[in-house]
Amino acid sequence: MIARLRRAYRGMRLGTRLALGLGALSLVVFAVVGTALTTYMRDYLSAQLDTQLAQAQIAQSKSIADYGTLSGKKYYSWFYAVYDVSDGRPELRRPEDSADLPEDVDDLTALASAQSAAHTELLRTEHLKGAGTYRLRACEVEPGVVLVSAAPMEDIEDTVGQLITIQVVTFGLALLALVVFGRRMLRRGLKPLSDMASTAHGIASHDLTESAARLSLRADGRDGGPEVDELRTAFNTMLEHIDDSLAVRAEAEQRLRRFVADASHELRTPLMSVRGYADLFQYAAANAPEERDRHLARLRAEAARMGILLDDLLLLARLDAAEVEAPLRLEDADLVELVQHAADAFRASRPDHPLTVTTGTEAVKVRLDPQRVRQVLDNLLANAAVHTPPGTPVSVEVVVASGAALVRITDAGPGIPPEDQERVFDRFYRVDEGRSRDRGGSGLGLAVAQSLVRAHGGRIELNSEPGATVFTVRLPLDEAGLPGAPGPERTAV
């Protein structure tokens, strides 16, 4: 039975459970108040009756002492008994009226005996046989004479009974009204929570597997008080975070699809070339031996192209998982020396682009991976040469500023359109989609450069306008690597 009641209680709505709890608490309060009020009223009425008994016995004692009778001093339904206790044993005097004594006078006699021994007024409540509950009072009229009076308590019991009945009815109605109206008020107050629950159910039924899934549902309203407002704000903030996460996931999925498509396209081209040159090589080996070496060279070139692409993809994957496998081999190296080597290689491979290098003569020691930083410099210089017409000047500058070593690579080409500047570091992205890998690369060079610089704790900044495109590589530089005290930006000298 108790288990069934518990299950039924757990199945109730929160508003109903709160209303029942409030009703139970109110019932306890009403019981305490009713008990206290009833006890106070009973004690008050008993005290009034005791006072009435005392006042009546004063007049009766005087009448007995003066005239030896109680005539004219009696109350309706009261009992009176006069005892002689001169020898220590109470002896009942003959009453003037037989109605003055109850059927059984033992309780009155016992009280008279107790009073003679105590020599003070005594009060008791006794149930007299055939009469009911009475309040008894014994007092000394004169030496050796004791008067015992008994007043009925029926009126007190009736009054207290009526008071209890009124309390039960009043408190019952108040409790019913409290539960009914309290439940309505609680349901109204908890309505914002129900609305949020409905919103949560709507979100649960929303298909989040779609790549463009967005949660348009929000908990609105202003009712419920500060606590509900705080919960509503936290709920909506959580939904905003979920929306942001879904947007990031959708963007990542889209980038992954684009990456796979671009990688497939980039790998398909050299693979098709390898397949074609392999067929030509087979034909030349059988019919034109003089063409065999040329086709073999083309096979090697296409294989090298595919190897470079796969190396770039593998490097990017390792950089993305740097927390598992760090692809860097750090050591203290001279950044100026790396820049000079990269410049020499650029001049040898790109003689049609004049290069100016500003580094000074003093070394700039940085903890880095020389091979990877050299790869960054080569990629940026190659990017400047590929995307500018022949004869476009290119400059490289090494400076130290605010605890960082900066390498600026500037070209005087046509610049990068503003709408493309935010995406030039995306993988497989080309400003000119019509470029082939032979002319414009695969679109991985800047992505690799950015990932490598980030792996060193630095960043690459781009500032481009017609006639000046500047890529700034910023690498962290500790105090030991500074060629001088930190200060405003300056060229390494």
Care to describe what's here?
Helices cover 55% and strands 16% of the residues. The chain is of the alpha+beta class. The strands form 3 sheets. Strands 7, 9, 10, 11, 12 and 13 form a 6-stranded mixed sheet that branches. A 5-stranded antiparallel sheet has the order 2-1-5-4-3, with helices on both faces. A two-stranded antiparallel sheet has the order 6-8. A hairpin with a 2-residue loop joins strand 4 and strand 5. Helix 2 runs antiparallel to helix 4, helix 6 packs antiparallel against helix 7 and helix 8 runs parallel beside helix 9. It is rod-shaped, with a radius of gyration of 54 Å. It starts with a helix and ends with a strand. The C terminus is likely disordered.
Topology:
Elements: H1 2-10, H2 14-67, E1 79-84, E2 91-92, H3 106-118, E3 122-128, E4 132-142, E5 145-152, H4 154-189, H5 191-204, H6 225-287, H7 292-320, E6 331-334, H8 335-349, E7 355-358, E8 365-368, H9 370-386, E9 394-401, E10 404-411, H10 418-421, H11 437-440, H12 445-455, E11 459-465, E12 468-476, E13 490-491
Parallel strand pairs: 7-9
Antiparallel strand pairs: 1-2, 1-5, 3-4, 4-5, 6-8, 9-10, 9-13, 10-12, 11-12
Helix pairs in contact: 2-4, 6-7, 7-12, 8-9, 9-12
How many β strands by DSSP? 13
Class computed from helices, strands and strand pairing:
alpha+beta
> What's the total helix number?
12
Approximate strand percentage: 15-25%
Major beta-sheet overview: 6 strands, mixed
